Structures are given as structure tokens and as C-alpha cells.
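call fold(seq) -> C-alpha cells
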Amino acid sequence: MERRACERIPSNLKVRFFSVDLPDSAVVTNFTRNGMCIRTSYCLPCDNSLELLIPLNKGILKLHVRIRRIKQLDDIHYALGVELIDTPEEYREFVRIQRKVFKALKKSPFNKHYRLFNYDL
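ret:
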């Protein structure tokens, strides 16, 4: 049984941590209107607040997030569960569009993998 208040939307969107000097990007594996799961090769401290840069077709979206959960996936990768501290309108619109696309893909008999990309806002 899903315990989340919001449906998770699968993704493979590359993002960067703005407040942390890390050489490579991370990948958002799923997101909701309140947070996201980010796969990275860096283990950042829990309850750490930072800025996340998301490249969109209309520019870069900067989000303030707080790390709430950390899970080691393998020898070098971690999954970071982050919550949004504040949610700009651009992000809410991005989630609305992605949710519509995801629901359409789920209904399609030809799509077995529901990975969403960066759709134009």
C-alpha cells in the first residue's frame, strides 16, 4: 500500500546541487509536488538544506530543498529523499504537466517504462 499523500512521477531528469561544490550532477528518479528522490554518488548529511538546480526549456529552476532520507543503493550510489522548503509556481506547473504526461503514458499499451523527460513548459 502506498503511504504517500502524492503520486510519485518517475523521471530521469539531471539536476545539480547549487550550494554544494560537487563535480557531477545527480538524477531525479521520481518526484511529487512536495519532494523528490535523487540518485547521486555523494552522501550528503541528513537534514541538510541546499539549493537544487533543475534545467528546464525556459531556463534554470532553483529549488530550496532539505534532505530527509538517505539510502545507500550500492558501493558508490545513494538515494536522497528531499522535501521542498518552498515551492515556486514554476515547479508546481512543471509537476502538473508531468503528471498529465505520466497518466497518458500509463494508459498507453505500448509504454512499458514510464520515464519522463524535460517537457517544455
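The longest strand covers residues 59-72.
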